[in-house]
C-alpha cells in the first residue's frame, strides 16, 4: 500500500501541470470533465486500476489499453499526459491524480464540492435548490454536487461541504431529539 503523503508528493506536480496546461489552452473545463470521466471509469472497473498499477505489465501494454479505453472519450492532450504518467511509472496514481486535479480546479474556479445524501433520488429542481443554498452559504461562484442515496435517513438530506456537515435528515432529527430527552 502506498502512503497518502507519498502519493501527494508524486501526484501534486502532475495535477498542477495539467491545471496549468488546461488553463493555458482554455481547456480547464474540458479537462475537468475528462478527469471526472476517468475517475468514474476507474471506480466502475477496478480491474483497470489493477492492470495499470501492476509493475510486471510493460508500459507499452498499458499505453495501448489507455488508447483503446480513452482515445475517443477524452482530449488528446490529456491522453498524452496519461501516457507520460505511464512512461514515468506513475500511472498507478491515476485515481489520486484525478482527485487532486479536480480539487485544484474547484479551488481555482471558486467551486465547492457538496456531497449530498438523501433517502430518495433528488429531482433536478431539488438539486438546483441545494446548489443555490450552498452558494449562498459558502459564497462560492459554483457548486458541484455529488449525490448518494441512503434509505436509512428516512427522509430529508445530509450535506457535507469540506469538513462541515449539515444534517437535515429525519434520522438526524430523531437522534437529536433522543439526546435532548436523555
Q: Which ranges are low-confidence, i.e. pLDDT below 50, for 5 or more consecutive residues?
A: none
Secondary structure tally, helices = 8
Mean pLDDT over the full residue set: 90
- How many DSSP E strands? 4
Span of the ends, CA to CA? 44 Å
Q: Give helix and strand order, one letter per element, not per position.
A: HHHHHHEHEEEH
**Rough shape?**
elongated
Strand order of the largest sheet: 2-1-3-4
Share in β-strands: 5-15%
Task: Give the tags.
182 residues; alpha+beta
Short description:
The protein is of the alpha+beta class and 182 residues long. The protein has helices at 4-25, 28-44, 46-53, 59-70, 76-87, 94-108, 124-138, 170-181; strands at residues 111-118, 142-149, 157-161, 164-167. It contains 8 helices and 4 strands; from the N terminus they run H-H-H-H-H-H-E-H-E-E-E-H.
Describe this structure in words.
With 182 residues, the protein is α+β, with helices and mostly antiparallel strands. Helix content is 62%, strand content 14%. It has eight helices and four strands; from the N terminus they run H-H-H-H-H-H-E-H-E-E-E-H. It has helices at residues 4-25, 28-44, 46-53, 59-70, 76-87, 94-108, 124-138, 170-181; strands at 111-118, 142-149, 157-161, 164-167. A four-stranded mixed β-sheet has the order 2-1-3-4. Helix 1 packs antiparallel against helix 2, helix 1 packs across helix 6 (94-108) and helix 2 (28-44) crosses helix 3. The longest helix is centred in the N-terminal third of the chain and has 22 residues, at 4-25. The relative contact order is 0.12. The mean pLDDT is 90.
